[in-house]
Amino acid sequence: MKALQLEEPRSWKRIEIEDPGSPGPGDVLVRVDRVGICGTDLGGYLGKMPFFSYPRIPGHELGVEILAVGSDVTNVKVGDRCSVEPYINCQECYSCRRGHTNCCLHHKTIGVMCDGGLTERIILPARKMHPANQLSSEQCALVETLAIGCHAVDRGNPTKQESVLVIGAGPIGLSAVEFARISGAKTIVMDMVESRLQFVREKLHVPHTIQAGSGNELKELEALTDGNLADVVIDATGNNRSMANALNYCAFKGRLVYVGITQANIEIPHPPALHRRELDILASRNALSRDFTRIIKLIEEGQIDTKPWITHRTSFDDMIGEFESFTKPETGVIKAVVEVQ
Q: Which of 172, 240, 296, 303 could anchor a disulfide with 262, C-beta 3.0 to 4.6 Å?
């Protein structure tokens, strides 16, 4: 059975692996139809993702079809098209017992800490399948990316009377933009790449954007918020300098959410500002099962338009040769999808 393996940073290899066989109790055998490429995969390729281990078969944004079910599986059936919740939690630790399955003590994301979906078939826990028969396989593969942004916005908990600044208009930042917009809060997006800001304005219909690097970012934000700055700031850059500077964009009693991940230290430049404004600094990791259910419904209802998201497609056979281009913003990539079948 064919698979694509990342042996080490910047080193892909096509390999053959054993067929997974039949699913046991609680599991399902799925055919992988589509795999989304996200920042985690890019970080793993570039050697910048702290949770990534090698060698690894990546692939955690999956659109799959159920081929077989274990003897006690009742939530899905053969033939169902599903989105996969790729966060394998132990169900027993303190976090899991309290419902915080996204940050399980023994958490493993498939395609990151254990082998994932860049292959033909794979066995997964049935409890991680989210039926989505009205969605295409590509839409199913988008759900996980959207779930990351959904959870990050939930962590910030904006109201309709507040403003949200999303820093970084890559796929994770854009997913946060979708849910900031849905919350009804005034949504503002900051990025260094004008083409991505243009995408935000034209495709996501969010008019308020700020180009980073101009030196006028703070003044532009003040102009958009009546001088108050942003009630919620979500940094999706994964850049430690941006993450440190994001503090300066927070309003009094504001909330700063870190959803981007960095291996570098984050040095808060002005601790008195943190206390003076009584800011909350929050981390956001992964997503919850309810986020997947919510997103599938929002796509079905047309509240989230997935058409603009997928800007690049590649086949399983061509992916290795094209992957490097997905790391470059100048190619205009927002979301690349691998067509496995």
A: 240
